[in-house]
Structures are given as structure tokens and as C-alpha cells.
């Protein structure tokens, strides 16, 4: 961590200050560290939190959307460190491939090398089409980004897109 050499002052109510002190104490850190961790979260920690949310949630759409936003927004300079390792245990092969494809797609867009762990995720055996309509399959076969196609995932939108 870089040495702290600047000061920031904010004005808050005594009640909010007390609340921040309680939360910082519960987290086992000082108030400055607590506030900074919330205002400027560490990219690696955020990536791990999102992957953990995928493991815990029944509806994965929100966590995948959050991963999309994270990978789109993380600066190139922080990308490699942010995604250098991932614990995909407990995720279905489909979700493991979704995460790996999204990270590979982000790496490609940022002109960075994908992390080694992404290459270790085995592609799923059966093609997965993001929509259940057979008439859209030819479109998905053409439109899916290469990182997804290599993993047998056929989606209409990719990193940075919203549907």
C-alpha cells in the first residue's frame, strides 16, 4: 500500500461518525481504512465478491450483470491484478465458462492477456443458447463473441452490452 501523504476532510453528523466508528471496529480496521474500502474498493476483492455472489445466488443474472459492469469498468492498468486468480469451485460448468468467457472477452477488449486460470476451464460439452427459441439459434451462432463460442456458449450480447 502506498504511503498516505494527503488528507481529506468531510463533515458529517455526530451520529454518522459514531456509526462509521462502529462499522470500522466491527470490520477490525480504523475509520479511514473502512471509509476508503467502501469509497474506492480494491478491484481484486470486488472480483472475488462477485464470483462468490454467483456461488450463492439462485438467480445468476444479477451477479453476471454485475460482473459485466465490473469488467467493463476496471481500468486496463488494474485488470491483470483484479482477475489474476479466481475460485470457481462450487459453480456449475456453465457458470465457470460464463465467467471465463467474460474475463477473456474483457482481456481482449483491453489488449491484455487473459489469466491462466481461464484457459484451465474446460468448455461445456453441449452448446448453450442464451435464449430458448430455436429460430434464433442461427443468429446466436453468428453473433456470439469468439471467447464465448470457444466455450460452446452462444449469446447475443457480450461484455459492455445491455439487453
Question: Would you kindly provide a written description of the structure presented here, covering whatever features stand out?
Answer:
The protein contains nine helices and two strands. The protein has a two-stranded parallel sheet with strand order 1-2. The chain is mainly α and 163 residues long. Helix 4 runs parallel beside helix 6. It is 56% helix and 2% strand.
Brief write-up:
With 163 residues, the protein is mainly alpha-helical.
Topology summary:
Layout: H1 14-27, H2 31-39, H3 43-56, H4 61-73, H5 76-83, H6 93-110, H7 116-120, E1 128-129, H8 137-143, H9 146-149, E2 153-154
Parallel strand pairs: 1-2
Helix pairs in contact: 1-2, 3-4, 3-5, 4-6
The chain-level mean pLDDT equals 90
Quaternary structure classification: single chain
Biggest pleated-sheet summary: 2 strands, parallel
Proportion of residues in extended strands: under 5%
Question: What's the number of extended β-strand segments?
Answer: 2
Helix amount: 55-70%
Count of folded domains: 1
Amino acid at each position: 500500500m502506498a504511503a498516505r501523504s494527503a488528507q481529506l476532510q468531510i463533515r458529517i453528523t455526530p451520529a454518522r461518525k459514531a456509526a462509521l466508528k462502529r462499522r470500522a471496529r466491527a470490520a477490525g480496521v480504523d475509520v479511514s481504512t473502512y471509509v476508503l474500502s467502501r469509497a474506492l474498493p480494491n478491484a481484486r476483492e470486488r472480483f472475488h465478491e462477485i464470483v462468490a455472489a454467483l456461488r450463492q445466488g439462485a438467480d445468476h443474472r444479477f451477479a453476471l450483470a454485475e460482473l459485466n459492469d465490473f469488467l467493463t469498468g476496471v481500468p486496463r492498468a488494474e485488470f491483470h491484478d483484479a482477475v489474476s486468480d479466481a475460485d470457481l469451485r462450487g459453480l456449475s460448468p456453465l457458470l465457470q465458462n460464463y465467467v471465463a468467457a467474460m474475463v477473456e472477452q474483457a482481456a481482449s477488449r483491453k489488449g491484455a492477456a487473459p489469466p491462466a486460470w481461464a484457459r484451465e476451464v474446460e468448455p461445456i460439452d453441449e452448446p448453450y443458447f442464451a435464449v430458448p427459441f430455436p429460430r434464433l439459434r442461427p443468429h446466436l451462432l453468428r453473433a456470439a463473441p469468439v471467447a464465448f463460442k470457444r466455450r460452446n456458449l452462444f449469446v447475443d450480447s457480450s461484455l459492455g452490452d445491455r439487453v
